[in-house]
Design a protein that fits this description.
9 helices, alpha/beta, four-stranded antiparallel beta sheet
């Protein structure tokens, strides 16, 4: 069976406006040739530092940001250049949960109106009563009471608002949900509740998830596979357990070394990366990680490593792995 979502050599470049002297400094290469796929009912994690292009990739997959080059296929259909009218009819199959649960909800609409708007757009309720019942069931499915439908977003806590965002994404019965750091704005105590909710819904409804996060511990718990992103590119991809136990790329090793360990006697050594993340306007030649890599060789400065197969199910873009 082909993957539900296939992203092939996707690029998203944002042009920079001309300077006062009339010169164009180029473009921001937010996503620079990413290839990744998500199977039906599978959860795939996308991790990396802030600014590496994770959110842009997630938005490009849903065509909220237009790709510069490459291809996006959903359920075997190329949706990369679909016109807006045709794309709108496909959008029922893929939805998004946004990072900030407050700004993603209209403060002037009750949560029932916010969830019901999706039902109205896709003609999924035949009358007001069936619409009301469906909204109530959606709220109950995410751990909220049906009567909360008449309340406004400001009457809820951050965790409750994120549950509303999840209910809204589920309203149209999608096959894929892109989760853009859905717990990063929440308290630690609430994060676990939302993660467990997403895990339960994913298993019950056989949802495919593209879960974007900078927290490897959360991603390992929720996802079957993990893709590690650096400066707009995938540098390592593999089964979650294997990648977290035996990371091959130096960048993945550095990310994992920063994950807190419960055991106080653990002797894990922290890998500190030198320098700053290079600018996506002028990325380094060769391997994009070589200016900060603790094991870089001379060829890393000139030769860009492709994403190659390492072991069954695992890929890495590094000369030295």
């Amino acid at each position: 069976m082909p993957p539900l979502l296939e992203v092939d050599r996707l690029q998203v470049h944002f042009p920079i406006h001309q300077t006062a002297l009339g010169r164009s400094p180029g473009s921001v290469k937010a996503v620079d040739g990413v290839t990744v796929h998500v199977n039906e009912g599978e959860a795939v994690g996308l991790v990396g530092e802030s600014g590496c292009g994770k959110t842009t990739l997630g938005r490009a997959v849903l065509r909220l940001v237009e790709p510069t080059d490459g291809q996006i296929r959903f359920a075997g259909e190329d949706i990369t250049r679909l016109p807006p009218r045709e794309l709108r009819s496909r959008r029922r199959q893929f939805q998004m949960i946004f990072q900030d649960p407050f700004s993603s909800l209209n403060p002037r609409m009750t949560i029932g109106e916010s969830i019901g708007e999706a039902l109205d757009i896709h003609h999924l309720s035949s009358d007001r009563e069936s619409r009301r019942v469906r909204i109530g069931k959606l709220l109950e499915s995410v751990g909220l009471r049906a009567e909360y439908a008449d309340r406004f977003p400001h009457e809820f806590s951050g965790g409750q608002r994120q549950r509303v965002g999840i209910a809204r994404a589920l309203a149209v019965e999608p096959r894929l949900i892109v989760c853009d750091e859905p717990v990063s704005a929440l308290d630690v105590s609430v994060q676990a509740q939302v993660i467990n909710l997403l895990q339960d819904l994913q298993q019950q409804r056989q949802l495919a998830l593209l879960f974007i996060s900078h927290d490897l511990a959360v991603v390992e718990h929720l996802c079957a596979r993990i893709a590690v992103m650096y400066l707009g590119r995938i540098v390592e991809l593999g089964p979650a357990r294997d990648l977290c136990r035996r990371p091959r790329h130096p960048y993945t090793q550095a990310l994992l070394s920063a994950v807190p360990v419960v055991d106080p006697d653990s002797k894990r050594s922290r890998i500190i990366l030198g320098g700053d993340v290079p600018s996506p306007i002028h990325p380094p030649s060769g391997c994009p990680f070589h200016p900060r890599c603790p094991v870089a060789e001379a060829r890393c400065r000139t030769e860009a490593p492709p994403l190659r197969d390492l072991e069954p199910g695992q890929q890495v873009a590094c000369h030295l792995a």
